[in-house]
Amino acid sequence: MTVRPWTTRRAAALGLMLCGLAGGVPTNASAADVTVGVALPRSGAYVAVGEQVLRGVEAAARDANARGGLGGHTILLDVQDDACDSNKATAVANHFVQSGVKLVVGHVCSNASIAASEVYAANGVLMITAASVSARLTDRGLPNVFRVCGRDDDQARLSAIVLAERFRDRKIAVIQDQTPAARALASATKDNLNRIGINEALSASFTPSDADDAALADRLKGAGIEVVYYGGDAAEMGRLVRIAAERGFRPQWFGTSAIATEDFSRIAGPASNGVLMTFYLDPSRQPPAAAVAKSFRAEGVEPTGSSIYGYAALQALVAAAGFAHTTDPRGIAATLHAERFDLVLGSVGFDAKGDVTAQGYVLYVWRDGKFTPAGKP
């Protein structure tokens, strides 16, 4: 199968789709090309976030190629679906290694990134994620791992501060659905809240389903809960919020970056109005991303959620390769650690762990199917 470099966004999307379905790298790659692996969920609960990241990556590839590519080489993308599953992510990582791919944008879910990063570390592959927030991902100190998004411990600290400042005198529940991300955020937020001197009125875990969501809503309502913190994904939280509203339970819901997709408001319906969430600073509203955001909108796409972060991930690789005059992953990694770059996120660098130095999390509120900064209480 032949996948050609992009000249239009439509061609890019077609090439990505065909390459991903084939499960292989472009067969027309030459010495003038460099293949970048892209690992994200194209199936499963987080597919909407995967699509956001993919839109950003393909736009960044198009723009970079128009300016000379990565280190003077035309960028080709090998897009693979990991479904946010650790085992599939490991298989995708091994696919990239066997295909000779040395640079990867991915993965999206933290469990997938952590599993795949072990393969990359053992084989000299550089990975940069646009959406994996687990502190453990970078706290291990692997020199080849980077992220342009925030960390879940920072998100949990902000969540606890907001709960304390806005809802100190309310009955707060902290719930989680036993998935790794939701469990980690619930635990960290609870710990931070307790350190501030506030104890939650109720802490509970549940298995998401229509029946269990209804039972949980009744339990929370019966306990007089006024504020509910939940780190579940857009589909799970959307369903829980909707079912609770249908049963006459309308607390102040508080979610996380996992619901930063319009799927949440579509599933929750009118009950999504007023829901709070923590998410990264929205760069699409900031001057450094103005031109990129404008090009998205010109094509009828609103660059919300992780789209700009997907763009930034590939843009960082391109910037470091250009600075170091190399496509070697070790040289790019060393440059990412040492220098600062003007990206769509602003002027940023990466610390010794590989965490980006950009501004962290912000509080947002959902209104009429969109989320905007919540401002002061």
Automatic annotation (TrEMBL):
Residues 34-369 form the Leucine-binding protein domain. It holds the Pfam family Peripla_BP_6. Residues 1-31 form the signal peptide. Keywords: Amino-acid transport, Signal, Transport. It comes from the Bacteria. Belongs to the leucine-binding protein family. This is Leu/Ile/Val/Thr-binding protein. It comes from Methylobacterium jeotgali. The lineage of its organism: Bacteria, Pseudomonadati, Pseudomonadota, Alphaproteobacteria, Hyphomicrobiales. The gene is livJ.
